[in-house]
Amino acid sequence: MIVYHYFSELHGLDALQHSWLKVGRLFDLNDPADCRPLLRNMPAGESITADEYFKFLYQEAGILCFCDSIDDPVVWSHYADSHRGIAIGYDIQRPLHKVNYLDDRPTVDCTEASKLLGEHGTVTTAFLEEVIARGFTTKAKSWGYESERRVFIGLSRGTVEMVGSLYFYKTDPLVRMKSVILGYRCRLNESDILMAARNYAHRGDRSWVYRARLRDDKFNLDIYNQAQKKSLEIPKLPQQP
User: Fold this and answer.
1) How far is CA 153 from CA 79, 132, 208, in A?
2) Residue 140 φ then ψ, to 5°
3) Rg of the chain over CA atoms, in angstroms?
4) What's the total number of domains in the chain?
5) Helices (H), 73-178
6) Pairwise CA distance, residues 139 & 163, whole Å
7) Residue 77 dihedral angles phi and psi, to the nearest 5°
8) Which residues form the domain of 82?
9) How far is CA 145 from CA 59, 72, 208, in A?
10) How many angstroms separate the CA atoms of 121 and 13, rounded?
11) Measured between alpha carbons, how far is 174 from 171 in angstroms, rounded to an integer?
12) Which pLDDT score, from 0 to 100, does residue 136 have?
C-alpha cells in the first residue's frame, strides 16, 4: 500500500539524504489524549492510570504516521509548511493500522488484556495487538481529515537509530520510498530531489518526482509529473464514519 508522509522542506531533504523517518513517541503526540485509552475492569483494589499501565509501551515503542491522501490541500497546509514542503510516498510492507475517528475515547478492558500476557506478566504479541487495536488507533472525529495509517515499532530494533534525544527509523525493504511530491509553493525542483536522493536506485530517474498544482475546477490538488507529462492517478478513498 502506498501512503504518504509530509515534511517541511528542511526535514524532507533530511529524510531523503539519510533515508530515515522520525519516530514519534507515544507520550508526545499532537493530541494529548491520543494513545491514552481509558481503563476498565481493573483488578479489585487496584487503581492505576493509563500512563502506569502502559509504561512499558510508552518507553519501548514508537510510531510512524502516514496519510492515505496526497491531494488534500488541508493536509498540505498543516503538515507541509503551508504547501512549501514535500511529501514522500512509501510502499509499506509492514502491518499498517487504520486510525478510526470517533467522539468517544477508546477503552481497554484490563481483565481481557491481562489474559494475553505471558508467564510472569511478560508482554506478548497478542497483548500488543489487542492494546493497539483497542486503544492506540482511535482519535477524535475532528482529526478525520488526516486519513491516518500507523506503524508501531520497537525502539530497540536494529532499524531504529537514536540521534540526540530523537529516534529515527532507517527505511528498509519493508518501508520503501516510491515517490516525492513537491508542494505547490515548494522552492525545490526535480534536480534538488535527485541530488538529495542520489544514493537510491531512483538516481537520475525523474519519473518518481511530482509537483502539486492547483486545479481549475476543484480544491483538491493535481499531482503532476513533468517527465511523463501526466498526473498521478489517485484512488477514491472510502468516507470516514
Assistant:
1) 22, 12, 27
2) -60, 145
3) 20
4) 1
5) 73-79, 110-114, 125-135
6) 29
7) -65, -40
8) 2-231
9) 29, 8, 26
10) 43
11) 8
12) 94
Report the C-alpha gap between 214 and 232 in whole angstroms. Answer: 14
- Cell 508542494 found at: 183
Q: How far, in Å, CA of 7 to CA of 1, rounded?
A: 20
Does the residue 145 lie in any domain? yes
Q: Is residue 212 part of a domain?
A: yes
166 and 22 in contact (C-beta within 8 Å)? yes
Q: Is residue 62 part of a domain?
A: yes
Q: What is the pLDDT of residue 240?
A: 45
- What is the dihedral sign for C-alpha 106, 107, 112, 118? positive
What is the reported pLDDT for 79? 97
d(CA 155, CA 63): 9
pLDDT means per 10 residues, the chain with 241 residues, are 95 94 93 92 73 86 95 97 97 94 93 83 83 93 96 90 94 90 96 85 76 96 94 68 43
Whether residue 81 is contained in a domain is answered as yes
Residue 104, pLDDT score: 95
d(CA 220, CA 35): 30
**What predicted TM-score, i.e. pTM, was given to this entire model?**
0.90
